[in-house]
Amino acid sequence: MRAIVQRVTKASVTVGEEQVGSIGRGLCVLLGISVEDTQKDADYIVRKILNLRLFEDENGRAWTKSVMDRDLEVLCVSQFTLQCILKGNKPDFHAAMPAELAQPFYNSILESMRSSYKPELIKDGKFGAYMQVHIQNDGPVTIELTSPAGPTDPKQLSKQEKQQQRKEKTRSKGPSESGRDKGALRSRQDHNASSGAEGDVSSEREP
């Protein structure tokens, strides 16, 4: 999942002559859903959007407050073109989730954002419509978010699980015998080095 997050002084969406969503100061978010996205991706994006510290505090210190800290608005706009893959100069959108699946998924993201914040401060465009998006970027400040991609190949997942198990076994065993032997050897070497003849500069170590 990809999101373009812009700090704005105002933003609005119109469809034809009708204004379907508008905000004052806050965030305008363009959201692109891919065919591989899951609830985990949605949770990540929602959490990041609401907690990004893109605003100043009451003392004017920049990058200290989130949209939730400041009680500001968020305008979300579904934008499948964020999942574009170029084939030469021609955009290909096969990576985007089909509209019949993307619409309920997108609506669930909005509901998650509203339940995590104040529902009246989360605004929306019109899914699937030809929209005019008017953005007055503040700064300008633009942040690109991409949800972490986890392996979907069962073999890759199994490989990661085995690696994790090996790490856990290593931690539970503690230092190996060879590790203790090396430590003892270093200790003897240090002792020999520090017991050199008085006045031998080569035997002195930096403090």
UniProtKB/TrEMBL annotation:
Protein name per its UniProtKB record: D-aminoacyl-tRNA deacylase
EC number(s) recorded for this UniProt protein: 3.1.1.96
Keyword Hydrolase: yes
Catalysed reactions listed for this entry: glycyl-tRNA(Ala) + H2O = tRNA(Ala) + glycine + H(+); a D-aminoacyl-tRNA + H2O = a tRNA + a D-alpha-amino acid + H(+)
Enzyme class: hydrolase
GO cellular component, one term: cytoplasm
SUPFAM superfamilies referenced in this protein's UniProt entry, alphabetically: DTD-like (SSF69500)
Gene it is expressed from: dtd1
GO molecular function, one term: Gly-tRNA(Ala) deacylase activity
Subcellular location: Cytoplasm
Bias type Basic and acidic residues, positions: 156-167, 178-191
InterPro entries: Daa-tRNA_deacyls_DTD, DTD-like_sf
Record keywords: Cytoplasm, Hydrolase, RNA-binding, tRNA-binding
UniProt region (Disordered), positions on chain: 141-207
PANTHER family for this protein: D-AMINOACYL-TRNA DEACYLASE 1, D-TYROSYL-TRNA TYR DEACYLASE
Family: Belongs to the DTD family.
